[in-house]
Amino acid sequence: MKKASSNFLESFQSFLLERGASLRTIEAYTEDVMSYCTWHQQSQGSIPKPEEITSIDLREYQSYLRNNRSMKPASLNRRLIGMKSYLKWAEEVGYIDRLPTFPKLARQQKSPPKALERKEQNRLLRQVERKAKARDTALIRLMLSCGLRVGEVVSLKTTDINIGERQGFVTVRSGKGFKWREVPVPNEARKVIQEWLEEREQKKVETEWLFPSRDCLQDPLSIRRVEQILTDYAQRSGIENLTPHTLRHTAATNMLQSGADIVTVATVLGHESLDTTMVYTRPGKRVMTEALEKSEM
Predict the structure, then answer these.
(1) Taking a C-beta distance cutoff of 8 angstroms, is the pair 9, 33 a contact?
(2) pTM to 2 decimals?
(3) pLDDT of 68-80, one tens digit each?
(4) Residue 120: strand, helix, or coil
(5) Distance CA 224, CA 229 (A)
(6) CATH T-level fold of 3-93
(7) How far is Cα of residue 94 from the mean position of the Cα atoms in its chain?
(8) CB distance 16 to 26 below 8 Å
(9) Strand partners for 183
């Protein structure tokens, strides 16, 4: 990218950081803007300044992603959402007078997220305990017991943790949409987080990050590394396709099955709309099978 365009992008990144965006969000939006600029340069011969991006350009870009890149609706929409955030920033700081009209987002089929069965959760936690790594146990519990997003977990600092004997809270400052929230920490999660904090203190780990990178203590653990850690435990536990999202989905399902109402679950997960949370209320195959078995004459 040319210097002028790089300056715009760097300013946008600084803006996101100041607003409390997670590292994952900043990386994703940066990729979205660079992808658009690459397309614009190839199709029109220049890298655009924010004021040079028009509604027609955005429609043509959407068409290019759909037809030439065969991009799935979810990925296509994310590209446009990233560009919208970029241009909203440009409008806010005065680079453009008004936001261009964006094309309608592509429709996408939403399927119920996969949650781990109780026996799978137990197998996973058993393997984690056998390895006896306080960091891994705390990391997994924050997603499985508290429903945090992986980006939220790796962005946590020690000052975001408030653990007592009878209750505990974690302050999420890098939530989706740059919003912060307080999430209660249940008993088992409190124990393992406290163990990790004590281990850090014994080892004299001097960094603000709750889960620092082993390569550089001044950097947080990367999302990619968390995914690798989960893959290792998944193989040991015999669980297929285990991701950070799976643990978050499982936390939501556990809450609902334990009698929590939809508003409470939405608040814990940081969902602005109840529609987003409603997907967790759809019964899985096992629940439907049990219901039919019980009702059969």
Answers:
(1) yes
(2) 0.62
(3) 877 888 888 999 9
(4) helix
(5) 9
(6) DNA polymerase; domain 1 (1.10.150)
(7) 30
(8) yes
(9) 170
Q: Please name the amino acid found at residue 147.
A: G
Residue 99, both tokens: 């936001």
Cα separation of 52 and 124, whole Å? 52
Instruction: List CB contacts of 142: < 8 A, sequence separation 6 or more.
Output: 148, 153, 156, 170, 189, 193
Q: What share of the chain is helix, strand, coil (3-state, %, to 5)?
A: 60, 5, 35
The confidence score (pLDDT) of residue 53 equals: 95
Residue type, 250: T
For position 109, what pLDDT does the model report? 61
Q: What is the CATH topology of the domain spanning 118-292?
A: hpI Integrase; Chain A (1.10.443)
Where do the domains of the chain lie?
Answer: 3-93, 118-292
What confidence category does residue 24 fall into, taking pLDDT thresholds of 50, 70 and 90?
Answer: confident
- pLDDT of amino acid 4: 39
